[in-house]
């Protein structure tokens, strides 16, 4: 096999995330596997891996979602499997905040608030900075800390954030997160 396929993980799989990521992949380039995403994720690791390998354009955007399931859910198990695959390079992840009851959290490289400002504070689901520094709460993010991912960008709920990430506005917060991952990952 040639060089590994470059992948960006998105820890959200609802309808807003699917539409936003389909739209942004058309704007920024790459292949979005939104058709395999769900809330929660139902696709198998094998299905996701085969779709990544067949993707015509990189980066490949993989949406995973555990829908609030405690502990490592289906989406996180896919992430752990992809991280071990030598034919796949996870170049970054967008860690999406949630009102999690399970107190699952992860560290991140940087966060973007609902106004597009970079911050070291965690972010709420609405995209508002919280007092916690360097940590974000969510329901599909626990396994991010167990994997070597060069850039993890924390944001609020994709396509929402009190309307500030609406697709009609070009989903500027999610777009900025992807651009940061591409830039820091040296992707052309």
From TrEMBL:
It comes from the Bacteria. This is Stage V sporulation protein AE.
